Amino acid sequence: MIKAKNLYAALSIVIAVLFLIPAGGCKKDDEPARETSYILKVQDVLGVTGTATFIETSITESTITLKLNGAPSGTHPAALYMNTVAEGGAIEIELNPVDASGTSTTSINYLTYNQLIAYDGFIKVLKSSSEPNVILAQGDIGGNVITDTNVTYTLENIGDFGVSGTTMFEKRENGNTLVTLNLAGTIAGEVYPATINLSSVATIGGGPVTKTLNSVNGTTGKSYTNIRELDAGMNISYDNWLVYNGYINIYQTAAEFDNIISQGNIGSNVD
Predict the structure, then answer these.
(1) What pLDDT is recorded for position 253?
(2) Does domain 35-142 have CATH number 2.40.10.220?
(3) CATH 2.60.40.200 occupies which residues in the chain?
(4) Longest dimension (CA), the chain
(5) Is the pLDDT assigned to residue 165 strictly greater than 70?
(6) Residues 96 and 123: beta-carbon distance below 8 Å
(7) What is the sign of the dihedral through the CA atoms of 88, 150, 147 and 222?
(8) Higher pLDDT residue, 243 or 16?
């Protein structure tokens, strides 16, 4: 009889403890809100910097807060867009405009916090609704954030054009790749096509083009291309590029696509 009473008492304690443990997935009222911040970089108006912060306010609702420093007076339209800054994209969410204090706060209830911090998108703030082509600040968010993982390759001058530089492959959180071409010796106002080709620079006759890159702006010497897939539609990740059998060509003009002025091996072709 005593053993039965002791067993009953022990079971009662276990049951009481179980009731005190919160159910998995439930957010307690005293738990701090989760939040993630992203940098908004200056674009067309010098001196403007900012951040976009995603704050989890409940299991189904989040808040997007924008803060700009150095913005001109007035209100500034803002939105969350699909894709990356390098690609551009359609508006996914119209955000409340940045006001005179440099702040915007928007509540979101159809994308959860977890969905937002993995989202394939970017945020852009415009100078005004009457000047939609003037961008104050913008930045990639969610899965498009650039990690610290990257590799840089050399692009050598070909012929007498005096154009050389580097190409950097950067890994995004979602495994996609941002390719940045940075050239010296380009001419302001000119545009220089660029491609990734199969095989190496030593290939007789050259290898076929597998990925067309955004052309280099001759004024800045730069080009930015987000890569998810090859021109033929095959998906390719950052890790694939590290062992890729390829090289990069820079061309003089679109009209003289065969006139290579700079090139360099990438991936498995680099010692």
Answers:
(1) 83
(2) no
(3) 35-142, 146-267
(4) 102
(5) yes
(6) no
(7) negative
(8) 243
Question: pLDDT value at position 221?
Answer: 97
If phi > 0 it is left, if psi is from -120 to 50 it is alpha, else beta; for residue 142 that is left
Using the predicted structure, report yes or no on whether residue 64 has a pLDDT greater than 70: yes
Q: Distance between CA 129 and CA 72 in Å, rounded?
A: 14
Task: Give this prediction's pTM.
Answer: 0.84
φ and ψ at 9, to 5 degrees? Answer: -65, -40
* Residues 117-129: tens digit of each pLDDT: 999 999 999 999 9
Q: Which of 212, 208, 196 is nearest to 248 (CA)?
A: 196
Question: Is 146-267 a domain of CATH 2.60.40.200?
Answer: yes
Return d(Cα 259, Cα 187) in angstroms, integer: 16
Strand, helix or coil for residue 2 = helix
185-206 residue pLDDT tens:
999 999 999 999 999 999 988 8
Return the structure tokens found at 136.
Answer: 């104050």
258 close to 248: Cβ distance less than 8 angstroms: no
Let me know how long the chain is.
271
